[in-house]
Amino acid sequence: MSALRARLSAILLAVCLLFTGQALTTPQRAAAADPGYLMTHFIGEGSTGQQIYFSHSTDGLNWSDLNGGGMALRSTVGTRGVRDPALVRSPNGDKYWIIATDLCIDCGQTWSQSINDGSRNLVVWESTDLVTWSQPWLLNVAGAIPDGRNAWAPEAIWDPASNAYVLYWATNKPLNGATKHRIYYARTSDFRSITTPQVYIERPGTQEIIDTQIVEMPSGVGNYRYVRASGDGQITLEGSNSILGTWTNLGNLSGIGLTGSQVEGPMWMKFRDRNEWTLYLDQYATSRGYMPVTTTNPSASGTYKLPASGSYNLGGTKKRHGSILNLTAAEESRVQARWPNTAIKRLQSFNFQDRYVRHANMDVRIDPNVSPAGDSQFRLRTGLAGSGTVSFESVNFPGYFLRHAGYDFQLAYNDGTTQFAADATFRQVAGLADASWSSFQSYNHPDRYIRHYAYQLRLDPITNATGRGDATFRVTS
Length: 477
What we know:
The protein is mainly beta. The chain has helices at residues 2-20, 46-49, 111-117, 329-338, 418-423, 465-470, and strands at residues 36-42, 53-57, 63-65, 82-89, 96-102, 121-127, 137-140, 152-159, 164-175, 178-188, 198-201, 211-216, 226-231, 235-240, 248-252, 264-270, 277-282, 290-295, 320-327, 344-349, 356-360, 363-367, 378-382, 390-394, 400-405, 408-413, 426-430, 438-442, 449-453, 456-460, 473-476. 11% of the residues lie in helices and 39% in strands.
């Protein structure tokens, strides 16, 4: 029996590696029967376009925007913008990280500044369930590189040879007579501290390399355990049997008409039900976002095929440089429950009908002529503390909810605690001043309601007509 169990365990492990490229434990494995894929990406320039967005697909080619096409996470650190997010799953499936470039073009920083004196940090989020994320933190990766001038396009892959993640990114710096972007790497176990950065990939002369992503191959496909695709003037393919070992040039995609002057940001995806891969490429030169090219052998440049017209759909938002995770059934269920396409709403005051509930510097009040408009926009989610209730999530600060503390209101980040859930949950009832409107009764203080007082939002007992007017709102678009 022990021999049989060992063989079964080996088969399960092989299935895990075949469909995910990672050694996941049995409950977390992504198998052919599992339902879909999660893409994390950004969508454009500006302070809202350069944030974390999620999209979902059941077939890997046709994508739907999650969260109604709105951002899923917002950076509140560094430049307060992020690009090039990578989504990393731990080897046993109990943790996830998003690592991203700390960069906000057209919102306080130019391309020249970001190239020559940009952030040396990456932005990192952590989760244990793929839906509840920590507050972001900054990881300084280029500060230890002498005259390192930025840190762009991070990726990470688990390296069983060193029992750590290999974190790699591009940094611009002068070296050996050439100032250009090279790929550096460091090891990390937690994305909070790293080993001393080392040069990982450098091209000859003045040729830069910025984007690269590695995919692990199942046994029997090609001649290499790992294949990487890089943007270095071409979309160059290389193979190796060791992440930090010697890599062999395998050609490029110029044979199908794709070079680095047209596309960038290579993003691998393994189809869960067959030995076929898509390499998504960002059509930056024509501002069209991602397109897929497919192959049955990533290490053979001659096997890549351009997509047929109408064979893919990237959804409503432009998908820019990101990464794709093959989802287990449990992961997909959680993701879709957390980011449904809930309509955007505002709360209009009953007795000051030119005023709307809004947040300002995380305080909450009612104001007329709210600018930016996103400060007065919320998604009415299923209550964090239970069904039959509602919670108000900010549209332009996703993950932040209206929450009472000391009977005062603030916009606060959901810390996942029972106390937060209770403080941010309300029962929507008939309006106290007009039954065709709405009032919101506190979940954990049912004798109190959301009301405004001197234009500030409070949680109060309602005892008179003035209070009933102050505690009545219209949920409106």
